Amino acid sequence: MAETLLDLSDLRVTIATRGRSGEVLRGVQLRVTEGRNLGIVGESGSGKSMTALAILRELPLAARVTAGRILYRGADLLTLDGSRLRALRGGEIAIVFQNAIAALNPLLPVGRQIADVYRVHEKAAKSEAWKRAVVLLGEMGMPDPALRARAYPHELSGGMAQRAMVAMALASSPRVLIADEPTTGLDLTIEAQVLELISREAARAGTTLILISHDIEVVADLCAEIAVMYAGEVVEFGPLADVLERSAHPYTRELLACSRTTGNGGRLPFIPGQVPNLREPISGCPFAPRCPRATDFCRREAPPAIEVAPGHSAACHYADEVAKT
Amino acid sequence: MTSVTTQQPLLSARGLTKLFPLRHGLGGRTTATAVDDVSFDIRPGRTVALVGESGSGKSTVGKLMLDLLAPDAGDVQFEGQPLRALSRAKRRDFRRSVQIVFQNPFRSFSPMLTVGGSLRDALRLRRLPKEQQRQEIAQLLTDVHLPPDLAARYPNEVSGGQLQRIGIARAIATNPRAIFIDEPTSALDVSLRGQIVNLLLDLQGQRELAYVLVSHDLRLVAAMAEEMVVMYLGHVMEHGPAARILERPTHPYTLALLAAAHAKSAGVRADSRTSLHGEVVAVPSEYRGCKLIHRCPFAQPACGEPQTLREFDGRLVRCRRAEEVREVALASSPT
Amino acid sequence: MSTQTDPSHLTDTTMAPELSGVAPVAPPRGWQSRRSWGWLRWPPVLLLIALVTLSLLAPVLSPYDPETPAPADKLLPPSSSHWFGTDPLGMDVFARTLYATRTDLAIAVLSVLLGIAWGLPFGALAAYSGRFVDRILTRFAEMIQSFPQVLFAMALFAALGSNELNLVLIIGFLNFPVYLMMVRSVALPLRESEFVQAARCLGVPRWRIVLRYIVPNVLVPVFSQFALSCAYAIQLIAGLSFIGLGVQIPTPEWGAMINQGASYIVFGEWWPSIFPGIAVVLSVLALGGIGRRVRRALLREAT
Q: Which of B171, B175, B198, C134 has most Cβ atoms within 10 angstroms of its Cβ?
């Protein structure tokens, strides 16, 4: 029986700036099972990156967890003490960010940054850690790894820096790897390489992947399960095929239509309106103002998560009907 | 799709070349050719797409065509006259006729000016009296489906999708004939992109606009462009009707781009014949052969010689092995 | 499937730019953030307002002449007739402290403004000229900044003479490189920013670009630095006057007053020095607090 690695229940995070506050995560419910990569898809304001930061307890200073739990293998990360947390972060739970060149330490050569993972989490000796770092970079497809290990992040191209960051994340053979928009900003041909690298190496190391992206296709290729987020909550969750082919939430349907349709001289689909302003309280379903199927009931009552198939649920009053269309 | 007219093009690039210094750690100033002998025409009502990845030179081509940069060789002609030789009146006409929409809406507006203030500057070239200016600004905002009272807002009070539409409003404010559109949707959420594209297509139909579309999103190119120019490190690699090139590319680079895009959407792994190894590496100007040589799966020693654009299968292509590439493309094409 | 064009009045605006896909490199927001008036109640602002008001009301608040010595009344301790006591020359310390507020604040503000007036055009020039001119101006600014300020001031005073006008000029000169570099560093990237390119495409003439697009965006960081520069200036003014340069007796000025009373502290006559000293501390705290807050607020918008 595969272990549940991560279990987020009713996670709520509020950000307060300049006297005003907004709830950026409004009751996030997620489960990550070992061996089944999870993709989190969402657009601006969906809260997908905030969720990743919350798991690692790296939320911005103005943000506060106001409710909910984050269980990692049974232990609540939110109440964990400092030393245990430090052991987990970068150890069992690792993260890869979007802009690698900016996310890496600009003052240290990348080889050193990877070696530090070995030194901190495995108490390896300096020279041995360095050697292993170089080997790891080579496995990540870095050309001329011994030379590149001595390079600083700004001396590397986007794709190479991303490889270095993935190396750093996988060095400790983590149980969970969170990749937050790892290929945004990279060229199309490099994107394919990096995604392939992440999925291959994660599988090899027995690491379960949480892949966060605004691009549903990036996620579709690599993940077994998908969570779709909108306005700070998970609106649909389930196995890949179910969510993509039998979507039970109108937002998922609309998003798929926008992502996939190739207009050929005709109109391209889009979703009119904007994401709701999270600084205002939201009544009813957050997607209702933009939803083609919204009813008055939707605007009044926030929909609960309804299970339409085993392991597949959507936060829509009409989830069953939506799934059948 | 409008048929190609035989009249003189509105704007044309002729052999455009632009060099930039390459910084080498150990002194020695080499240059890289950011734009290398690029030529194409822009005609009313038609969209030409410049396709390429980072370093391809497509944005630099845009700046050259808008006279924000001066070419090192070749020139840009506006209605048959080189930009450098335009009279003052003609130059004003040029500025009025050719406009630009930027990629990142948040960077393309001064944060200290209101939306209306920025738009007012766009109207200066038309020399309208003050009262008419206000009406015109309201009309422009309505044309891009925005409420006219947005004119009093500052750029940071407005959402990304709205700001991009304001950028389009600014571009059409001068009643231009051609608009250079730089990655119009890449900074926007997926669910909002269709709106921008539809708006651009509507405006093009209403006003007979010529577009130069710079994009790495092949879906966008398929939706909007009749003609396509594929660029790599400044060179035009393939140039011809967009639909035909997308259907059967004859250049290894185009093939790799399409394979990568397709691999993403269909979950199909790109294979060794259709993917490039390594990464984009800037090439010094002295080298005159094919710039893809280090990464190309079809590369041969002879590719180190200068390759010319030649006609093949209804387009121009810069590759000696275009025939084979075409075969591979047809073989692996999804149907 | 939604393919209709947007009726557009679903306007619930303001999704903050930092939450959209691409992080904007927008310069600070500017004056809108001060539309509300709540900031007036903040202590440093109140303090500054109090200081300025008191200084302006000095003739009303104190019957004594701050510049006429009265040797008979020298060194009287604080009492109901002399709230802060009298100084070694018999002048009322309270009155002098109040009048000195005018002196110190005025000189500070004037000299910083002078520094900005010099620094801004040269900074813009450095950003817009070729490499050579830029190099020269930058080196010049660095040169001035590399001298220890007090020694430099002393040298200039020795050459030009020690009076208030020269004090303003010298401190202005010391501020000039700060603003030159600041304006230059903001104007340089602005030159190539997309909205300037857009303006050029629209045929906006150069002078209008500078005035409408460059200068407003430059003024924001300049403004955010202003109060802090004033705080430093006051310290410099008091410090220089303390050692006898700058403001001369009998003009009331805090540093000079501290200097006057310095040798008497040992004898237990603390009031001629301490009160002006407190005034210096208060004004620097007020200006510094305001300056830091303004800078944080204005520069916070840049993600």
A: B171
Chain B positions in Cβ-Cβ contact with residue C32 (cut-off 8 Å): 154
The CA distance from A317 to A302, in Å, is 9
C15 and A277 in contact by Cβ < 8 A? yes
What are the tens digits of pLDDT across the range C6-62?
222 222 222 233 333 222 333 444 444 444 555 666 788 888 888 888 888 888 877
CATH 3.40.50.300 spans which residues of chain B?
Answer: 11-247
Cross-chain Cβ contact A43/C6 below 8 Å: no
Contacts of A214 in chain C (CB under 8 A): 21
Q: What are phi and psi of B58, to 5 degrees?
A: -65, -40
Give the domains, in start order, of chain C with CATH numbers.
46-58+79-300 (1.10.3720.10)
Residue of A nearest to B265 (CA): A217
Contact A286/C at CB under 8 A? no
Q: Tell me which of A149-158, B150-159, B259-268, C136-145 is least confident.
A: B259-268
Domain B11-247 adopts which CATH fold? Rossmann fold (3.40.50)
What pLDDT shows up at residue B327? 87
Nearest CA-CA distance, residue B217 and chain A, Å? 9
> Which tokens in the block code for residue C301?
């918008």
pTM for this entry:
0.80
AA letter at C246 = G
Which domains does chain A carry? 4-92+172-261+268-324 (3.40.50.300)
pLDDT in tens, C109-147: 999 999 999 888 888 888 877 788 889 999 999 999 998
What distance in Å separates the CA atoms of residue B225 and residue C114, rounded to the nearest whole number?
57
What is the DSSP-derived secondary structure letter of residue B86? -
Structure tokens at A116: 């530090």
Q: Contact at 8 Å (CB) between C256 and C272?
A: no
